[in-house]
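User: Show me a protein chain along with its predicted structure.
Assistant: Here is one chain, sequence first, then structure tokens.
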Amino acid sequence: MKTENINANSSLSWIEIVSKYNFSDPVRSWWQISNSVIPYFLLWAVMVWSLKVSYLLTLFLSVFAAGFMVRIFIIFHDCGHGSFFKSKKLSRIVGIVTGLITFTPYDKWTHEHKEHHATVGNLDKRGVGDVKTLTIEEFLNLSPWKKFVYRFYRHPLFLLGIAPFLVFVFQNRLPKNNMSRKEHLYLHLSNLALIAIIILAMWGLGWKTYLLIQLPVLYIASVHGVWLFYVQHQYENVVWKRAQEWNYKEIALSGSSYFKLPKVLQWFTGNIGFHHIHHLSPKIPNYKLPACYKENTVFQEVKPVTFFSSLKSLKLRLWDENKKQLVGFKALRYYPR
């Protein structure tokens, strides 16, 4: 596309811009399923063989299998948004299957994720699909024990090293009080289906073989998946607002990051680094996000978060309402009491 055409797009409303990308391409969707799911199971087969050679080789291969699991999760994610296929029924079927592969119940996760999109960056509606983040005032009003628990929760070793695995293995299995009877049923059916798959896999491969392969793959994938989610909404200069000031477009473009990754990692993560565009229009399938970014200067104005700059976000723990920014615990010593 010529430069003058790109610049002309900047005068269009954001609704007009994203409408050009808000539809799936069935050929590209099925191709992405093929180049994600098939290699994942082929790697599984190779890893079963590798156990006879060296477990170090198995662990090495698990890194690549985890990459494909992350990519499969993005397909699952897009199905939940209805952006991967035009058919709701087909989206649901593929979403359920990919959800079983990624240890994520389709209906429960999709419901929570839609709430996340509707409330992201809203300081008055935190708590659904978010990394728990307190304001400084809220933290200071906690009891000593609760302050300790929050500090422990927000420590990178727990938040990004332990919690992701617990979420995918245990938390995803548990119902919530606000779920409907139908949602409870779907969750239980998903759990039973996953248990059946695990039992069959253990029966066919042996319990030790299954665990030696599945556990490291799931751990690596879950840690990287949660890290991606964390960086997408917890970074320097992120914009969060109180409900009365909350604006959909502003929060999409300023409350969600553009996480610029090397091409190979961008491929494995299904272009989810273009998260500011995704939050502006979740109906855009992941494979169209790069073109949407490249062809419209309005999205290029967002300062990218790189791998190295994303490391700075690890120190961010609290929201400072006076400075309107995320800060670390060190800011407490300078906060007026």
